[in-house]
Design a protein that fits this description.
Elements: H1 2-45, E1 48-53, E2 56-61, H2 62-65, H3 73-77, E3 83-84, E4 87-88, E5 92-94, H4 98-110, H5 120-132, H6 136-144, E6 157-162, E7 181-183, E8 188-190, E9 197-199, E10 203-214, E11 220-226, E12 229-236, E13 243-254, E14 259-264, E15 268-269, E16 277-285
Parallel strand pairs: 1-5
Antiparallel strand pairs: 1-2, 3-4, 6-7, 6-16, 8-9, 9-14, 10-13, 10-15, 10-16, 11-12, 11-14
């Protein structure tokens, strides 16, 4: 019994010692966790800035705003006298568009803009603000996005002509870039074989095609295709050997990278006039 009692006593002491060590370890872990939480809370309040841009109020840090050296914010807006204990002592008002500033702040936070830019008008304002805030890298990123813009002078358009014969069911070959008239050419690309127009900018387009044909098969067919699918057709029937003109005018919502082709269904074109067959594309709204 004496040996049993000693063994039991040793077991209890060993168990208590283990529990004591476990409690100490947990106390250390809790202390360390509290210290980390306290550090995060302190850092989250450090350098707090309240910026009002137009009708919008933004909360960020002075560190974020002044991340780009020589920028509008780093080179004068946030004067050192305005920053106390790492915080902005009073709100700052900027007379610019608050919606646009969301994208500027996103750039300052992440180094680039991930959110899709709504439209070309918004892009132009964002480019103007990139210049205003003295952010050359942001301006360079916007220009490299390859988003074509509608010019201040008017809408983008493309005008093509053709007098080349086109067999039944084939696509019309336009005369090539030397006779193509572009306004904002960055919106359109004419394929090397001059049969396909590819759109670089999504938008609402008005498309007009006029196809002149010498009819020797008692039919006159004109088809307008987007991405290889007919979106409009024109079919005429007349006496043999008459010269006919088929026309289609459509307003279509077309996505970037979509392509347009014109398909002929009569025996051949009339070659009487270079302007007999025409294709006009006008961007109405992006």
């Amino acid at each position: 019994m004496e040996d049993f009692g000693q063994g039991l006593q040793q077991l209890i002491e060993k168990t208590l010692a283990g529990k004591t060590e476990e409690l100490k370890r947990r106390e250390i872990e809790v202390t360390q966790r509290e210290e980390r939480i306290d550090l995060v809370l302190k850092r989250s309040g450090r350098g707090h800035c309240e910026i009002r841009v137009g009708n919008y109020i933004f909360h960020t840090t002075c560190e974020t705003l002044t991340r780009v050296p020589e920028s509008y914010f780093a080179s004068g807006l946030l004067d050192t006298s305005m920053i106390k204990d790492g915080k902005l002592s009073e709100p700052v008002f900027i007379d610019r568009d608050g919606e646009v500033f969301k994208f500027v702040l996103e750039y300052l936070q992440y180094g680039q803009i991930y959110t899709p830019i709504p439209n070309n008008g918004f892009l132009r304002k964002l480019e103007a603000d990139a210049k205003y805030y003295l952010l050359p890298e942001l301006l360079q990123q916007l220009e490299s996005k390859g988003i074509a813009k509608v010019g201040e002078e008017g809408a983008a358009y493309l005008s093509l002509s053709s007098k080349q014969s086109c067999a039944v069911g084939q696509f019309v070959v336009w005369n090539g870039t030397h006779t193509a008239h572009f306004f904002q050419p960055s919106h359109f690309t004419l394929s090397p074989d001059f049969k396909k127009v590819t759109f670089s900018v999504s938008g609402l387009y008005q498309i007009h095609v006029r196809l002149g044909q010498t009819n020797s098969s008692n039919s006159n067919y004109l088809g307008l295709q987007v991405d290889g699918v007919d979106v409009a057709q024109c079919l005429q029937s007349d006496a043999n050997l008459h010269q006919n003109t088929a026309q289609i005018t459509e307003i279509l919502q077309i996505d970037a990278e979509s392509f347009l082709q014109v398909r002929c269904g009569a025996n051949n074109h009339s070659l009487a006039n270079e302007l007999q067959s025409r294709l006009f594309i006008v961007l109405l709204a992006d």
